[in-house]
Amino acid sequence: MAQVIDLTQEEIEKLRDLNDKFGKTLNSIGDIEIKLNLVRKKEEDLKKEKDLLFSDYSKLREIETELSQELLKKYGEGTIDLSAGKIEVA
């Protein structure tokens, strides 16, 4: 039969303190994992938003090219002054 020995109060306190520290550490690890997950989600959302903006940018460049061709056809080569609303042709 196994012998049962009482632990000292100090040993019990040390073990309880150690268990508390393990619990707090594991909770902190869980909190960090949740925060990392939120950061990853935010990163994915920002990448999607960036992709949409790049798509918009490409469309704007196409519109700019079309408008430039229209103006070139209508006025020929020149320099546009937007503030004056004029084009200086050569």
Plain-language structure description:
The chain has 90 residues and is mainly α. It has one domain. It contains one helix and two strands; from the N terminus they run αββ. The protein has one helix at 9-75; strands spanning 78-81, 86-89. A two-stranded antiparallel ribbon has the order 1-2. A hairpin with a 4-residue loop joins strand 1 and strand 2. The longest helix is centred in the middle third of the chain and has 67 residues, at 9-75. It is rod-shaped. The mean pLDDT is 96.
**Whole-number count of domains:** 1
- Enumerate the spans where pLDDT stays under 50 for 5 or more consecutive residues: none
Order of helices and strands: HEE
The CA-CA distance between the termini, in Å, is 110 Å
Helical content stands at over 70%
Structural class: mainly alpha
The residue-averaged pLDDT reads 96
Task: Report Rg.
Answer: 35 Å
> Strand arrangement, largest sheet?
1-2
Strand content: 5-15%
Q: What profile does the largest beta sheet have?
A: 2 strands, antiparallel
By DSSP (H or I, 4+ residues per run), the number of helices equals: 1
In total, how many beta strands?
2
Shape: rod-shaped
